[in-house]
Amino acid sequence: MSPALITLLLVLAAGMLLRAPIAFAMLASGIAYLVVKGQDLGLAAEQILNGLYNSYVLLAVPLFIFAANLMNAGTISERLFELSRVLVGRMRGGLAQVNVVVSVIFSGMSGSAIADAAGPGLVTIKQMLKKPGYSPGFAGAVVVASATIGPIIPPSIPMVIYALVSGTSVGALFLGGVLPGLLMALLLMAGVHFIAVRRNMPKDDPIPAREVPGILLRGLLPLTLPVVLLTGIYTGAFTPTEAAAVAAFHALLLAGVVYRAFNPKTLFAVTLESLRSSSVITMIIASAYLLNYAFAAEGVPAQLAQWVSSLQLGQIEFLLLVNAVFLVLGCFLDVSVMLLVFVPMLIPAAKLLGIDLVHFGVVVVVNMMIGLITPPFGMLLFVTNALTGIGLKDMVREGLPFTVLLIVSLLLITLFPQIVLWLPQSMGYVTGS
Predict the structure, then answer these.
(1) Shortest CA distance to 406 belongs to which of 360, 369, 433?
(2) Which pTM does this prediction carry?
């Protein structure tokens, strides 16, 4: 390991320990590398600008963020909640089951786990806390666990970023996430049912038959968004990147014009928040380009591939090792950092072993979603705590069974690649590298 690379790692670790914004810590470590290496500092700007301007797919990220924020600012979360009550509310622990179903539906619109927890998740927590039998910790745990489905079922912001660093088809990745997302939902619903029966949790109040048609009509209209998106992408009407613009426009039309759920002031606030979130992600991506240049210049990905080859690991053994590493890293690091810094170093090794990059991408993203609900730095835990005041310890304790079920789903997805690959291959996508 060269002195320059050691300096990079030390500066990066120091920045993270000092709780500096991760993008700034990454940028500082990259510049420190260039200084020690004796290279022109202008190389930093060159790498960042070349990376950003050559990444057309990156345009999808701020647009999907804007679409998710528009839907949360409107009344869409409430409409989806009522629709899900009609579907599964009469099951034991009905409101918790409703939350999982809402997450599945909302995931087809937002592509963001945090948007799911802050929108539909907040609605269902408020409803659960009004009923006897639902502890605050359980309500929060169900919400954070089901929110992990958001970036698995398309559209998905993390999968767009993975496509950026791997060169994999966004359309194939989106299709590859459908069955894993549904598998996660089924296992979570089974877990909720087991706990609900054991604790004798209540069923939801019956909905008068005369109200059902109106609830279905109001709830089905938002479902046109995923239909429009997926139909457009897979018929070739627009690219996945253009689909993000369609999603934003559709959400604006639905929440602003059809539902009239917000005024110009609210729209300005939503736009400002979307710009802030997009800027954070863009800064991390920009800094990652510099770090990736340093790692590539030092030959780290090639050395890692050679090391993996020397271990004589098979595909499954390598994927299980990756799972173990990312489950630990997910407790401490942001999803964007893992996708942009660590995943590019692993892709050469995955290619060397003949692992399909669509399968690898879905496994990695599921892994990182589990990291969002694991302490000490699970982002979904902190978001839910900030919005509801539910204690972190309570959510972690009540959420342990759901975390185990999500890990089981991860293992199934890892061991049986066709869970991921069947849909992309059926739709004619050529998967792999």
Answers:
(1) 369
(2) 0.86
